[in-house]
Design a protein that fits this description.
mainly alpha; 81% helix; rod-shaped
């Protein structure tokens, strides 16, 4: 794992520790308030991580190309559906009108998961810098606590 996948995997593991989805009976509490707020978005984070893993997206460039590919697929299907809608307006028979409506519904069904993936990928691009910042903040606070504990032990 590299880049984006690693950041999401780390944040998910931290959130699992926080929410008690771990083996240890006493779960550690997050040090930063921002990470505590991130617990509420765990479902969204898991969805985003699943998308990254399913499509083997490891870098920001791969994510951008994935978004572009999905956008072109969506626009191609939408233009095809629009052509079918135009044929529905001027049908030659009722049978042809029904066939066109069924074809339009099939295309709409294909569009739904593509749009969902595109929306999730868009949220990844928005949240990725925030997740990196959370990881850095949590790491800095953890180091600070360890240093403080060492100083206390040294004074005794």
């Amino acid at each position: 794992m590299d880049g984006i996948q690693l950041a999401f995997a780390l944040i998910i593991e931290l959130l699992k520790l926080i929410t008690g989805n771990n083996i240890e009976p006493s779960s550690p509490k997050p040090l930063s308030p921002a990470l505590r707020q991130e617990v509420r978005k765990l479902d969204q984070t898991l969805k985003e991580y699943k998308l990254l893993c399913e499509n083997q997206i490891d870098s920001a460039q791969e994510l951008v190309s994935f978004i572009e590919k999905k956008s072109t697929d969506i626009s191609a299907l939408e233009s095809e559906r629009q052509k079918i809608y135009n044929r529905i307006r001027r049908p030659k028979s009722e049978e042809e009108k029904k066939q066109n409506k069924a074809a339009a519904r099939k295309i709409s069904a294909k569009l739904k998961p593509l749009r969902k993936d595109l929306k999730t990928a868009g949220s990844i691009t928005e949240r990725y810098p925030h997740i990196l910042e959370l990881l850095e903040t949590e790491r800095a606070m953890e180091i600070q606590v360890k240093t403080k504990n060492r100083e206390r032990n040294y004074e005794r």
